[in-house]
């Protein structure tokens, strides 16, 4: 699923609520929750927090986000074997990731990227974009 | 006294959050004065219950006891635990550092794993919208269950939060043996320290069953006092008119250290944790045997573990729940073990003041014994007036607290299911 046509206006419309939810779930100050903050690296999130955040986002925005959805979306049209090999993202996969996660500052992509470490790239805006994609999917847009 | 060669363990810090005080000294002062903790239940609407009173922790600042991230996974009683443990560390003037964390241990008496009404409501709405329960709906994509809830309600959730928050990396365990939990956790800690598994320990207990499900369960068993109009005298252990216990909540923590290490750093020592006894009555799920079998073994073991005799004991902090079966069984056990010394030994149940703190009770009452030894005061057994026929020789601390030298004290905790704990404390 592509995100090229998600507009800044769409993101800005929901970003404050997404930031609120993330700050509350991670127990951090709202001021620290910037659009480009990495949930793991900057805000100290753990795997259980991702489950919690997704649960809260689902309730707030009335969408259903299957577990592992972001990573699946990130892979996009690539087959799993094209995207990663032996737990490391391929060159093709990395290209796809940079495109999909266009909101993540470029200097955070450090080759080679381990598959297990992809969630470290996810920012607050990554979650906002995920909501918008799911809202569109559920409305049939 | 028989001198024993056992490893001596010092109590060097105490922290308390109870229905009669949110710290150590205010709780201790209230217990000495017999100031009552019970009142009408305020945390939920208990108007439909046969018992509408409880012994709640009051004016507690839930937000200040730890980082928000940690507290997200903390239940009500975990907040009490974090506050009481912090007070104990501050009191002891020592706490785990990154280099010493693995020589620190942790043993807690923790409340039972349970489900909240909020969670039950989710299950009901999602799985039984038409009345019939359909478990497959729990697996449906739109099932709205909170994933963090499970983390918060596990029996060892509080243990994990405490270990994480205070950096304790050595021997750790969470004990749940109902009302004996706190006592058995401290007894387990004593054994672990005597074996040399760790050098210092944070030990204690925490619980809160003051919620609709906890209250309803005890109401169904008929275990609670229904004196809703007079909550301050509803808990009256050992009094012939008693009619059940008062459900309470709270936390108590102690810091334990090897004796020589405590002396070397010139720590303030409240008392020695000298003995532990642990037994199971194998009688009934809800009752302790009328002849004291079970508690008798626990008390004898504890004395033997301390190297003491009945004549060395000056004070007993009884389990004294204010139920007929407990009081009968416990008095029978004390008569057997203390024998001819019974009339001389001051006995009180501080549950007359505080109510019953369930899994936290044994830990809070261990702290009470240490404070009783420090100050030479046997706290009053509140609301006791008239003994049961045949128990006249049981020397209950009636009316007001007693100033007496306390060379050694016992703390009993007798649990639902038949678990018994007895701890022995000695003057330093």
Question: What would you note in describing this structure?
Answer:
The complex is a heterodimer of chains A (141) and B (428). In chain A, 50% of the residues lie in helices and 3% in strands. Chain A is mostly helical and 141 residues long. Chain A has a single domain, classed as ACP-like (Non-ribosomal Peptide Synthetase Peptidyl Carrier Protein, Chain A), CATH 1.10.1200.10. In chain A, 32% of the residues are buried. The mean pLDDT of chain A is 91. Chain B is globular and about 65 Å long. Chain B contains 13 helices and 14 strands. Chain B has a ten-stranded mixed sheet, with helices on both faces. In chain B, α11 (324-338) links the parallel β9 and β10 (346-348). Chain A binds chain B through residues 25-28, 44, 48, 51-52, 55, 58-59, 64, 66, and chain B through 67-72, 141-142, 144-148, 151.
Keywords:
heterodimer; A: 141 residues; mainly alpha; Non-ribosomal Peptide Synthetase Peptidyl Carrier Protein, Chain A; two-stranded antiparallel ribbon; 6 helices; 50% helix; 3% strand; B: 428 residues; Peroxisomal Thiolase, Chain A, domain 1; 13 helices
Tell me about the biggest sheet of chain A? 2 strands, antiparallel
Query: Which structural class matches the secondary elements of chain B?
Result: alpha/beta
CATH structural architecture of the largest domain in chain B: 3-Layer(aba) Sandwich
Low-confidence stretches of chain B: none
**Strand-residue proportion of chain B:** 15-25%
The radius of gyration of chain A is: 14 Å
CATH topology of chain A: Non-ribosomal Peptide Synthetase Peptidyl Carrier Protein, Chain A
Strand order of the largest sheet of chain A: 1-2
Number of domains of chain A: 1
Following the backbone from N to C, one meets helices and strands of chain B in this order, namely: EHEEHHEHHHEHEHEHEHEHEHHEEEE
List the helices and strands and how they pair.
The complex is a heterodimer of chains A (141) and B (428).
Chain A lengths: L7 H19 L20 H15 L7 H7 L4 H4 E2 L2 E2 L1 H10 L23 H16 L2
Antiparallel strand pairs in A: 1-2
Helix pairs in contact in A: 1-2, 1-6
Chain B lengths: L8 E9 L6 H10 L5 E2 L12 E2 L13 H4 L4 H17 L11 E7 L6 H11 L19 H7 L3 H10 L5 E4 L5 H14 L5 E9 L3 H10 L27 E10 H6 L6 E10 L14 H12 L8 E3 L6 H15 L7 E3 L2 H4 L6 H15 L1 E2 L23 E2 L4 E7 L4 E8 L2
Parallel strand pairs in B: 4-5, 4-6, 9-10, 9-13
Antiparallel strand pairs in B: 1-7, 1-8, 2-3, 6-7, 8-14, 11-12, 13-14
């Amino acid at each position: 699923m592509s995100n090229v046509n998600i507009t800044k206006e769409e993101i800005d419309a929901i970003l404050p609520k997404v930031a609120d939810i993330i700050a509350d779930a991670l127990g951090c100050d709202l001021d620290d929750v910037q659009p480009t903050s990495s949930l793991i690296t900057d805000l100290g999130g753990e795997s259980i927090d991702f489950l919690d955040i997704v649960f809260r986002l689902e309730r707030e925005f009335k969408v259903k986000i299957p577990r592992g959805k972001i990573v699946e979306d990130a892979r996009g049209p690539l087959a799993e074997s094209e995207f990663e090999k032996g737990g490391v993202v391929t060159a093709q996969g990395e290209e796809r990731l940079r495109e999909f996660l266009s909101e993540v500052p470029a200097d955070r992509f450090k080759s080679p990227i381990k598959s297990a470490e992809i969630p470290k790239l996810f920012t607050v805006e990554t979650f906002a974009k995920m909501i918008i994609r799911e809202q569109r999917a559920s409305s049939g847009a | 006294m028989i001198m024993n060669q056992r490893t001596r363990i010092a109590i060097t810090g105490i922290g308390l959050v109870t229905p009669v005080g949110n710290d150590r000294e205010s709780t201790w002062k209230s217990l000495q004065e017999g100031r009552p903790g019970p009142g009408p239940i305020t945390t939920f609407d208990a108007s439909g219950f046969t018992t509408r009173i409880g012994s709640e922790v009051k004016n507690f600042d839930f937000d200040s006891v730890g980082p928000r991230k940690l507290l997200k996974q903390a239940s009500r009683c975990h907040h009490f635990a974090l506050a009481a443990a912090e007070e104990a560390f501050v009191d002891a003037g020592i706490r785990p550092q990154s280099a010493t964390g693995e020589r620190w241990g942790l043993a807690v008496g923790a409340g039972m794993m349970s489900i909240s009404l909020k969670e039950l409501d989710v299950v009901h709405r999602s799985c039984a919208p038409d009345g019939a329960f359909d478990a497959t709906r729990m697996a449906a994509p739109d099932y709205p269950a909170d994933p963090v809830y499970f983390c918060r309600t596990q029996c060892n959730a509080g243990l994990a939060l405490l270990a994480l928050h205070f950096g304790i990396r050595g021997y750790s365990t969470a004990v749940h043996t109902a009302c004996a939990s706190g006592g058995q956790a401290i007894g387990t800690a004593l054994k672990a320290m005597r074996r040399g598994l760790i050098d210092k320990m944070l030990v204690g207990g925490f619980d809160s069953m003051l919620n609709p499900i906890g209250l309803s369960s005890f109401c169904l068993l008929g275990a609670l006092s229904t004196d809703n109009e007079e909550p301050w005298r509803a808990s009256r252990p050992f009094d012939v008119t008693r009619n059940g216990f008062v459900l309470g909540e709270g936390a108590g923590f102690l810091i334990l250290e090897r004796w020589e290490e405590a002396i070397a750093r010139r720590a303030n020592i409240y008392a020695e944790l000298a003995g532990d006894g642990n037994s199971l009555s194998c009688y009934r799920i809800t009752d302790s045997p009328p002849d004291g079998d079970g508690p008798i073994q626990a008390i004898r073991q504890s004395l033997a573990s301390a190297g003491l005799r009945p004549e060395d004991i000056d004070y007993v902090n009884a389990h004294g729940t204010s139920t007929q079966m407990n009081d009968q069984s416990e008095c029978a056990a004390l008569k057997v073990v203390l024998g001819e010394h019974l009339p001389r030994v001051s006995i009180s149940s501080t549950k007359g003041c505080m109510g019953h703190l369930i899994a936290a009770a044994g830990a809070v009452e261990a702290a009470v014994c240490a404070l009783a030894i420090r100050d030479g005061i046997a706290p009053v057994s509140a609301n006791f007036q008239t003994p049961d026929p045949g128990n006249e020789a049981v020397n209950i601390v009636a009316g007001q607290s007693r100033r007496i030298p306390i060379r050694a004290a016992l703390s009993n905790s007798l649990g639902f299911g038949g678990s018994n704990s007895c701890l022995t404390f000695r003057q330093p």
